[in-house]
Design a protein that fits this description.
Order of helices and strands: HEEHEHEHEEEEEEEHEEEHEHHHHHEHE
Largest sheet: 8 strands, mixed
Number of domains: 3
CATH topology of the largest domain: Rossmann fold
CATH architecture of the largest domain: 3-Layer(aba) Sandwich
Strand order of the largest sheet: 2-1-3-4-5-6-7-8
Shape: elongated
Number of strands: 17
Structural class: alpha/beta
CATH superfamily of the largest domain: Response regulator
Length: 450
C-alpha cells in the first residue's frame, strides 16, 4: 500500500519528505520494499511497487526500468541483492538515465542490523552510481524521537577515497526537519576532484597514438579521440588511466556478457570509457552506452586491379555475344537460301562461309537466282569483314581488361573474399536485411595481421 489515509511512522514521514524534496521531477518512482510503505505521492508522480523475489529480481527491476520508473526507494533486509541486480539491469535495459537516484531505507524491526547499508558502499556495483542515499538509524538520544543519518559515498576524488562514507545530514523525527539542510545528492559530476577514469584504447592512427616519444609529445599520447578524452577530463577534473588490450583490438562481446578487446573491457567494467574509432554498433549498444558521434568516417575497400583478358578470346572481342549469335543465324539462313536457289546441298556451307569472308564463287554457270543471292551475301560479308577487322585491330592495339570492382554487387558477383584485422569491420552491416550486404559480410576473413 503506497497511498494510505495517513502517515504515522517516522521512517514514512522521512520518505515522504525525501520524495517531495528530491524526486518531484521524476517521471516514475519504483518502490522495492519487502513490507508496506505508507507514503503520499505528488499528483504528477506515478509509481510502481516491486515485492522483491530473489530468483527474479533482475527481471522485476528491468520491467520497471523499461517503463521509465528509474528512480528507486529500496527497503530490504539484503540491499546488496538489489545493487547486484541493478547493475545487471544497467547492461540489459534500453532505457538508461545517468542521473538515477537510489534511496535505501532501513527495515523497521528489532533484529535489523543497519550496518548492512553502510557495508554496501564497498561494493563494486555501488561505485558506478553517483546518486545513492542511505538512511541509517542513528544512536537515539531520546525515547520519544528517532534520528536518521543521511549517508552517501564520496564517489569523487582519489581511488582510495571513493568508497568511504560521506555523512551529509541528520533528520530529527520530533523536529521534522534536517539539522543542516544539506543537499543530499551532492555529486553533480561537474568536478570529479581528480577521480581516475579508466580508458581502454589501442594505437590506431589518426584517432589514437600511444607510447609516443616524450621528446615529441610530453604526455606520450595524441590523436583525435585522445584529445577528446583529455579535454573532457580537463572540464570535469578527472585523471586518465589507460587500460591496454592491444591484442584483441576492438574485440567482441559474448552471450554471457563477457568480452575481449575494447568493447569487452567496457562491458566487464575493466574500463569506464572505450575509444579508438568506435562506430554506433547496435549489438554493442544493447549492453553499453554510446556518446554522441564526434566525427563521420567511411571505409574504403581496396580491390584487385582488373586483369588483362587472356589471349585466346581476343578474336571474339570485336563483336558482342549477341552479334555472334546473329552471325551464326545469318550463316544458316544464307545457306538455306542458297540451297533453295541451286536445289542441291553441294558445297552450300563452304560457299556461304566463303562469301561471308568476301570470297566469290568459282562456278560460272550459276543461274540468276544463285547470282542474286551471291551478290547480297558478298555485300553482307564485306560489311561484316570490315567491322570485324576494325574491332580486331582495336583489340590488339588497346588491351582489354576484365570488369572492375566498383560496387558491393560487383564484390558479391565475383565471390571475392575480403580481409580486415578484426571482425569489427562487419559490425555495422552484419544485421542488414539486404541479401547483397548479408552475402558480402559473410565473406570476411579476419586476421590479426593483414
Amino acid at each position: 500500500m503506497l497511498i494510505p489515509p495517513s502517515i504515522h511512522l517516522p521512517i514514512e514521514i522521512l520518505a515522504n519528505t525525501l520524495i517531495y524534496s528530491y524526486l518531484q521531477s521524476s517521471f516514475c518512482l519504483t518502490f522495492v520494499t519487502e513490507t508496506d510503505l505508507a507514503v503520499n505521492l505528488p499528483s504528477n508522480l506515478s509509481s510502481m511497487r516491486i515485492q522483491p523475489n530473489d530468483s527474479d529480481l533482475v527481471n522485476q527491476i528491468l520491467y520497471a526500468s523499461e517503463k521509465g520508473c528509474s528512480d528507486y526507494i529500496i527497503q530490504m533486509h539484503e540491499p546488496e541483492d538489489f545493487m547486484v541486480a541493478f547493475e545487471k539491469v544497467n547492461h540489459l535495459g534500453d532505457i538508461r538515465r545517468s542521473d538515477k537516484k537510489l534511496i535505501f531505507l532501513p527495515m523497521q524491526d528489532e533484529i535489523y542490523n543497519a550496518s548492512v547499508l553502510t557495508d554496501m558502499l564497498s561494493l563494486k556495483q555501488t561505485s558506478f552510481v553517483a546518486n545513492i542515499l542511505l538512511v541509517v538509524p542513528a544512536v537515539q538520544s531520546s525515547d520519544d524521537c528517532e534520528f536518521y543519518d543521511m549517508i552517501t559515498h564520496k564517489f569523487v576524488g582519489h581511488d582510495e577515497e571513493i568508497h568511504k562514507p560521506l555523512y551529509l545530514d541528520r533528520w530529527d523525527s520530533c523536529a521534522g526537519h534536517f539539522q543542516k539542510a544539506m543537499n543530499l545528492f551532492p555529486h553533480d559530476m561537474s568536478n570529479l576532484y581528480g577521480k581516475t577514469v579508466k580508458v581502454t584504447a589501442f594505437t590506431y592512427k589518426p584517432y589514437v597514438l600511444l607510447d609516443l616519444d616524450p621528446s615529441l609529445n610530453p604526455i606520450g599520447r595524441d590523436g583525435i579521440d585522445i584529445k577528446a578524452i583529455d579535454e573532457f577530463c580537463r572540464w570535469v577534473n578527472c585523471t586518465v588511466e589507460f587500460v591496454r588490450n592491444d591484442g584483441y583490438l576492438w574485440g567482441e562481446i559474448y552471450e554471457n556478457s563477457t568480452g575481449v578487446g575494447i568493447v569487452g573491457d567496457v562491458v566487464e567494467d575493466r574500463a569506464d570509457i572505450g575509444i579508438t574509432a568506435l562506430y554506433s554498433w547496435y549489438e554493442e549498444f544493447r549492453v553499453m552506452d554510446f556518446t554522441a558521434p564526434i566525427i563521420r568516417t567511411a571505409v574504403t575497400c581496396i580491390a584487385p586491379a582488373p586483369r588483362i583478358l587472356t589471349s585466346w578470346d581476343l578474336p571474339l572481342l570485336p563483336f558482342t555475344w549477341l552479334m555472334w549469335v546473329c552471325l551464326i543465324f545469318t550463316f544458316f539462313y544464307a545457306s538455306f537460301a542458297l540451297f533453295l536457289a541451286q536445289r542441291s546441298t553441294d558445297k552450300i556451307f563452304l560457299s556461304t562461309f566463303g562469301m561471308m569472308m568476301t570470297q566469290s564463287r568459282d562456278d560460272s554457270s550459276d543461274t540468276w537466282r544463285i547470282r542474286s543471292i551471291t551478290g547480297w551475301m558478298l555485300v553482307t560479308g564485306l560489311i561484316i569483314d570490315n567491322a570485324y577487322g576494325g574491332g580486331l585491330a582495336s583489340s590488339f592495339t588497346l588491351p582489354k581488361y576484365e570488369p572492375s570492382i566498383d560496387s558491393v554487387q560487383d564484390l558479391v558477383d565475383r565471390k571475392m573474399e575480403w580481409g580486415a584485422n578484426s571482425e569489427a569491420w562487419t559490425f555495422s552491416i552484419i544485421l542488414s536485411e539486404e541479401v547483397i550486404i548479408e552475402r558480402d559480410s559473410s565473406s570476411i576473413r579476419a586476421s590479426a595481421i593483414v
